[in-house]
Design brief:
Blueprint lengths: L13 E5 L2 H4 L12 H8 L12 H15 L3 E5 L2 H4 L9 H16 L3 E7 L5 H5 L7 H17 L5 E6 L1 H6 L1 H4 L8 H26 L4 E5 L1 E2 L2 E3 L4 H24 L4 H9 L10 H7 L5 E5 L3 E4 L25 E2 L3 E4 L5 E2 L5 E2 L1 H15 L3 E5 L17 H19 L4 E4 L21 E3 L11 E3 L1 H11 L6
Parallel strand pairs: 1-2, 1-15, 2-3, 3-4, 4-5, 6-8, 7-9, 8-14, 14-15
Antiparallel strand pairs: 9-11, 10-11, 12-13, 16-17
Helix pairs in contact: 3-5, 7-10, 10-13, 14-15, 15-16
Bound molecules: 6-O-phosphono-beta-D-glucopyranose.
Length: 475
C-alpha cells in the first residue's frame, strides 16, 4: 500500500539504540569479572579484535547515558555479562557485577530511558564452557541459576527482557562463532546444541514470568528476509527452505512451543537425533513469549539448487573490501545468490530497507505477537574529519530509509513497539572489530592503537535526535 503521506508512529514508541556487553564494556578483568569464551576468541581468532578495552563503556557508562539522554532516547538495549554476575563455578553472585548494572539501570531510569536487557549475547563464562558449554545439559541449570539471579536483582526496574541473542545465527554460523568446538559432526551435533539452547531459553521465559512483576520476555532472532531469485516455482521453494533452515525453525519453536513438521522431517531425512528427553517438551510448552525482538540488517536471495550440484561453503567478508562474500550452495535445499536490485555495504551486506517492512509483516502474519527492533544498522569504515567531526551521511540515509519502512509496516497493521538500531557508540564488530563502525557516537580508538576513547557524536546522532523528538515526523 502507498499511504500517500509519511507514516505515523504510535505515542510511547520506544526510540533508542543497542549494544552488547563484550562488544562495548571492556574492563574484562575488573570488578570481579572472569574470562568469557569470546575473550579467548578475540585474542586468537583473526579478524576478531581484542575486547579488553572495546569502547570502555565500563568506565564511561555515566557519560554514555548522558549522551543517550541528550539524543532523546526513551530506551536502551544492552546485555548483561554472565561472567560479571556469576564469575566462578561455585555459583556465587559477584556483588560488584550486580552493582555495575544496578548503577547503569538507575542512571537510565533517572533519564526516563527504558532498559531492555539481553541475558545472553555470546559471552559465556569460560568456567561454563569448561563443563561443556551449550554442548552439555548441565548448562540448563547453570543458565537457570544465572537468569534467576538477574531477575531477582534487576526485575524490580527492568520489565523488558530478551533471552538469547540470535540463537539461530549461532547455530547457522556456529563454525564461525566457535560453537562447533568439541563436536565430531557439527551438521548433526548442532541440533542437539540447539535443543539445549531452546531449553535454556524456556527456563529464562518461565523464570521471568515467575519473578518479574509485569515482566515481558522474548527471543532475539537474527532475521534476514529471503526472496526467491525468480518466479520459477522451484526458486520459491528454495527461498522457503532457506527461510526454514536459517530462521523459521527457531521462530516456530518460540511462538508455538513445539518443533515443526518441517524440522522433524529434516532430522529424519538426515538421520539426526536432537536428543529430546522426557519432560523437555513440557518445559518448552510452558515458555510463552510476550514479544519478538528482531535484529535485521539485510536480505538474501535464494534459488533452486538440485541435488546433483556440488556443495559450496559460505565465506564471509572479513576485511570490508567489496566482493569477498561467497554465496553458498546446499544441494537439494537452496543456493544463495546476489541481488541485482540492491546496493551492498563494504562487507557485502545488502542495503535493503524494504526487507524491514517485509520482515515485520512476515513475523506479524505468522505469529501475531508485538515486535521490537533490537538491531539494524550500517557497518562502515569511518574516521574523524579535519573539522574534528564525523560526517556519516551514508548512515543517516540508511537509518532514514529503514525507519521509514518500520513506519510503513506499522501503517500496514503490524504491532511494533520500538526501534533500537545497532549501535549507540561504536563498538567491536563480531566480524571486524573497530574497523567496522556502527555507532551514532564515534569512539576515538582503533584496533591497532588505543587512543583517548573520546566520544564524538556523529551527524547521525543529531539527525536521529530530531527524529526521536518529533516521534518520527522530522525526517
Ligand atoms: C548481530 C549481533 O548479529 O550483528 C551483533 O547480534 C553484531 O553482536 C551485529 O555485532 C553486526 O554484525 P557484525 O559482524 O558486523 O559485528
Amino acid at each position: 500500500m502507498d499511504y500517500g503521506r509519511d507514516p505515523i508512529f504510535p505515542e510511547g514508541f520506544l526510540w533508542g539504540a543497542s549494544s552488547a556487553a563484550w562488544q562495548v564494556e571492556g574492563g574484562v578483568a575488573e570488578g570481579g569479572r572472569t574470562p568469557a569464551i569470546i575473550d579467548l576468541n578475540s585474542k586468537t581468532k583473526k579478524p576478531y579484535a581484542d575486547n579488553s578495552i572495546a569502547a570502555d563503556h565500563y568506565h564511561h557508562w555515566k557519560e554514555d547515558v548522558q549522551l543517550m539522554a541528550e539524543c532523546g532516547f526513551t530506551s536502551y538495549r544492552f546485555s548483561l555479562a554472565w561472567p560479571r554476575i556469576i564469575p566462578t563455578s561455585d555459583g556465587k553472585i559477584n556483588p560488584e557485577g550486580i552493582q555495575f548494572y544496578n548503577d547503569l539501570i538507575d542512571e537510565l531510569l533517572a533519564h526516563n530511558i527504558t532498559p531492555i536487557v539481553t541475558l545472553y549475547h555470546y559471552d559465556m563464562p569460560v568456567w561454563v564452557d569448561e563443563l561443556g558449554g551449550w554442548r552439555d545439559r548441565r548448562v540448563i541449570e547453570l543458565f537457570d541459576h544465572y537468569v534467576r539471579v538477574c531477575f531477582e536483582a534487576f526485575g524490580d526496574r527492568v520489565k523488558y527482557w530478551l533471552s538469547i541473542n540470535e540463537q539461530n545465527m549461532q547455530i547457522v554460523y556456529g563454525k564461525w562463532l566457535g560453537l562447533d568446538k568439541g563436536c565430531a559432526d557439527w551438521e548433526k551435533d548442532k541440533w542437539r546444541i540447539n535443543h539445549i539452547m531452546n531449553l535454556c531459553h524456556a527456563k529464562a521465559v518461565i523464570a521471568c514470568h515467575e519473578l518479574v512483576e509485569g515482566g515481558k520476555i522474548g527471543p532475539v532472532p537474527g532475521y534476514v528476509p529471503i526472496y526467491p531469485e525468480s518466479c520459477k516455482p522451484l526458486d520459491q521453494i528454495a527461498a522457503m527452505n532457506a527461510e526454514e533452515l536459517t530462521e523459521k525453525i527457531w521462530n516456530d519453536l518460540y511462538a508455538f512451543r513445539e518443533y515443526s513438521g518441517f524440522v522433524k522431517q529434516y532430522w529424519k531425512l538426515h538421520d539426526i537425533d536432537p536428543d529430546i528427553r522426557p519432560g523437555d517438551m513440557e518445559l518448552i510448552g510452558q515458555a510463552k513469549i510476550d514479544y519478538f525482538a528482531l535484529n535485521c540488517y539485510r536480505s538474501n536471495v535464494a534459488k533452486d539448487c538440485p541435488k546433483e550440484e556440488s556443495y559450496l561453503e559460505l565465506a564471509l567478508n572479513k576485511e570490508g573490501k567489496k566482493g569477498q562474500f561467497v554465496y553458498p550452495k546446499f544441494p537439494g535445499e537452496y543456493a544463495l545468490a546476489p541481488n541485482p536490485y540492491v546496493e551492498t555495504t563494504d562487507w557485502d551486506w545488502e542495503i535493503d530497507p524494504v526487507a524491514m517492512r517485509y520482515m515485520l509483516r512476515y513475523v506479524w502474519d505468522h505469529y501475531r505477537l508485538p515486535m521490537m527492533i533490537t538491531e539494524n544498522g550500517l557497518g562502515a569504515h569511518e574516521q574523524v574529519g579535519p573539522d574534528g567531526q564525523v560526517h556519516d551521511a551514508n548512515r543517516i540515509a540508511f537509518l532514514r530509509d529503514q525507519i521509514y519502512q518500520v513506519g510503513l509496516a506499522i501503517e500496514d497493521g503490524c504491532e511494533v513497539i520500538g526501534y533500537n538500531p545497532w549501535s549507540f557508540t561504536d563498538l567491536l564488530s563480531t566480524g571486524n572489530g573497530m574497523a567496522k563502525r556502527y555507532g551514532l557516537v564515534y569512539i576515538n580508538t582503533t584496533d591497532e592503537e588505543t587512543l583517548d576513547l573520546r566520544r564524538i557524536p556523529k551527524d547521525s546522532f543529531y539527525w536521529y535526535s530530531r527524529l526521536i523528538r518529533s516521534n518520527g515526523r522530522d525526517w
